[in-house]
Specification:
Elements: H1 2-29, E1 31-39, E2 42-47, E3 51-56, E4 70-76, E5 79-84, E6 102-108, E7 111-117, E8 119-127, H2 140-144, E9 146-149, E10 155-157, H3 159-164
Parallel strand pairs: 2-10, 5-7
Antiparallel strand pairs: 1-2, 1-8, 3-6, 4-5, 6-7, 9-10
Amino acid sequence: KIMNLDKEEILLQRAKDLAKKKEIIEAKLLQLDIVEFYLSNEKYGIESLFIREILPLKDLTPLPFTPPFLMGIINVRGQILPVMDLKFFFDLPAKGIHDFQKVIIVSYNSMETCIIADSIIAAKSIPLTSIQPAPPTLKGIQAEYIKGVTKEFLIILDIEKILTDKKIIIHDEVT
């Protein structure tokens, strides 16, 4: 009888442990992993799933005759990437380029670009339940590019929409 009781206790403990692991996995599925950063004095977030890497902004080459949101291009280990300033889309004051800025290289499908960040705050997980829809006061591109906002006023960007928006794709050829 003692051995049967021990086996039952062991099986019961295993069942409890498995249930806890399942709860942890479910909780992780209800989280969004993001990188939080500043644009001007506002906090923005990008899902980690879309981020290839984050680098210091160095050797930016401006391009003439391009839209104001396109700051130029950079060379990342032989790959030439465009650098976008999202402040243009969100009516944030431009601060110019400074040494402390970072570029967040984001990708979706075959599209890749760099987004300027004034500074990186942290990588973190936030509960999906804490993300509210974009405020109805936002219109146009501002509303389109925002996936949601947290109660801490962290604005989650919709990288899929940004990278697939025809308004940011430049097809002009110089002759």
